[in-house]
Amino acid sequence: MSPNNTVSKLASWQVGKNLLKVEKVTGGYGDMEVLHEVSIEVKEGEIVSIIGPNGAGKSTLMKMIFGLLRPWQGHISFNGREITGLEPDRIVRLGLCYVPQIENVFPSLTVQENLEMGAFILDGDITDRLERVFALFPLLKERRKQRVGKMSGGERQMVAMGRALMLDPKLLLLDEPSAGLAPKLVEMIFEKILEINKSGVALLIVEQNAKKSLELAHRGYVLANGQNRFEGTGKELLNNPDVGRLYLGG
Amino acid sequence: MEPIVKIFLIAIPLAILAGRLLPLKWVWRLPLGAAIGLGLAFLFTWLVPPGITAYLVSFAIMASIFAIFSLGLNVQWGYTGLFNIGIAGFFAIGAFTSALFTKAMPPPELAPWVKQAFGLEMPFLVGVLAAAVVSGLIALLIGIPTLKLREDYLAIATIGIAEIIRLIFQNERWLANGPQPLIGIPQPLYCLVQDPPCAWLPAPLQTLFAPLEPRDYTYIYLAIVVLFVVLIYLAIERAIRSPWGRVLRAIREEETSAAMSGKAIFAFKMQALIIGAMIMGMGGALYAHYIASIDYGHFTPLYATFIIWVMLMLGGSGNNKGAMLGAFVIWGVWMGSAFLTDWLRPLLQAISPDLPARSPYIRYLLIAVLLELILLFRPQGLLVEEKRVSKLLEEKRG
Amino acid sequence: MKRKSNPAAAQIERRARYELGLRGLKKALGALLLAALIGLLVWAARIQGTSAELLLSLSVWGVMLGSIIALGAIGLSLVYGVLRFANFAHGDLMTVGAYAAFAIMPLLPQGAPLAPFSFGWEFLVALLLAMPIAGLVAFGADRVLYKPLRRRRSSSVILAMASLGAAFFVRSIIYLAWGADFEFYYQRPRPALELPLGVRVRPDQFFILGLALLLIFLIYLLLERTKMGKAMRATADNPELARVTGINTERVILWTWVIGGALAGAGGVMLALDSSLRPEMGWSFLLPMFAAVILGSIGNPYGALVGGLIIGVVIQVSAAFLNPAYGPGVAFLIMIIILLVRPQGIFGKPGG
Question: What ipTM goes with this model?
Fold first, then answer.
């Protein structure tokens, strides 16, 4: 599947109303400011990619959206509802799920148990949801009884994404989904991201693999020194010479 | 009128305190502090009945000994963040080591009843030194397996070693008389209160000390303990202000921000653990020579570990003055609660006839509640840590 | 598309198999080391002239003691995993359970002993009531003490210190209520049964072992089969991720305290049935429990079970050639060896 192909396929998609709105958010750890008046939007059904150099504050932004870190200033709303400073287990109920970059699975639990934990807030039968995730990641079905601690990095990433999909989120936050994976596995993860998006889930992705993530994103943001630097469609950013020179390695 | 020498002995701690607190230059502080100390001591012996003075002197001795432990713990916890909850172990090791180094072997007629591994009859200072060294060695042995791991492992290991040291002194008769108390621990400068006073003393001083009786020995011991507190305090303050001390605090704050290799961090933690333990060993030695008769029952987790933690937490970890202040306040609470339970006796009797006999445990309860209240409502303690780093920077700038 | 991902899958497969093999090898090495240790113990006992019969008896008693240690250690390990601090009050929760049963028993109608055991129905009822009481005490401590500290994001060391204070608090209340003397549930003679191979065991000890195994089995079911149990394991694995996943961690914490406290309470009652009640009984069990937890990898309840049994057997067998008072010392020694050789415990990942 060539990159150009991907973009053209996606371009025909209709994107809907505003889902996530981050407005002029400032904050950080202790008294160290990491983000300065950052604004971001994700619309329904969109793939949005955030790129930028190390230490630009990409992961911090993710944590802030998900309520793990309270912003000093600014507002975050999801689906028309203010979620600034809300606890993660509240945010999850609204249809916003998050896959952290590292330690994103429960190693001593089996694959299936990991997925079940993803649906912790639901009462009642979850077999349908399990089957849907297994349909997306057939490998996980084969290994459903295996403890995740004994699995490889690529498999763990699948478990982590599957866990976050158990709640049928409207928006999925992925923090560096391809970090530390072999090139073949990176390819596979990106394919899965497209597949997830096709099922109607919007995605906000932070990626070090900037070129690749812009190729499949509808829109993208470039973050540097904790501030918005560029934004536009994936194609625009890929073709922008400044972005190319500074952030895509020429 | 009390003997003049007593006034002098009481004046020593008062003069030091006055000298510390006066907001003057050194040149003025020394003579003025001495004068104020002497004046206060004179007033004190004049106004306060001798019985109460003697009580306050023994109170000050115990509080000062606990201040030494609190200072030692401050090196480990306050400055380095090492969670040692086995102070009782170092306490016991210090006490028994110094006792065995300075005591004589029991005379043959007592040998069947009093057993001890050795009795070296060394001078007091050698005993204190030996206590510090052995205590430091134990700290080294505990540090090797635990200091590279999460901080709670050190806590578990120290609690374990303290229990085992207590078990050993309880069960090994040959070592230090086992469950029976080890009695007759020599007291330094005891000859000053004997008649005639020490032979090596110049004649004029002999006449000065002549009026002292054996029951006045506490006055002399107070001066000795205060001297130790002052020396230990000055030594720690000096070390903490040095680059070494700054590294310790960097390790405590955030290990990685110290920008050092794991090996170096381990070495610094080990040094702090050992130095703290040596100070605690000295505290144990001073305790043994004061009490003169010790057994394993003195070194319980509550009396010899927990109370010291409460002292440091109340006074303010990371602040040496706070550590000493906390020791005096908590020792005051501890001693004062004895009066309280005495006073409550009729009430307790009314609740249950068994209760008055168990009233000492009210003190345990009080100390435990006190710690929880400190943790919940004033975690920084009475005296907040002095910001030494910024002060240093200011000095450099200025 | 499908074909493309196949080589990757094969690679994963190979890697997983390799890792599995490596792990198997390490496990085998660990087992060998353990066997060598136990062999050494037995050898030392034999040299001291201990008969094989006594040694066998000691091992049986060791399994029993180990099952009590395990009951405490499982809860301690769960608390450690979920709340991330060393709960120094866990031993005193055992004491709470033991004394709670002791306080309840006189209130109940006294029945005849349930032969061959030394206890009657009232003891069983008291045991069943003592467990939730210990659980509630643990949970109450969380509400007034640990939760406010957690809210303030206090370090694990401060929480551990608070638990030390709670331990002394609980114990001083027990001292005030019952005094320092030894107490017994029953002042009846308890003859031992003569089993084949010269093993002497009291019927009560069979009851203790059986009950401990039953409770451990129930805990296993809870952890493996129920949603809350799985959430507890998940939170022990990674509390931050549990929050991100939407697990209600406060509810998990509640259940962890109640279950950990109830198990410790049951352990305390059993310990008191086997010997006696005294205010320091739980505190002196703290060291063997921590040794079991560290041996079996912190946060791993099954590891705590295995660790408890090993520590129990080693303590009892060492009594053949060592003053039994040094039991906690033996546990401590094993713990130090583990910390030196394999600080992550038998079931832990390196660097974990």
Answer: 0.88
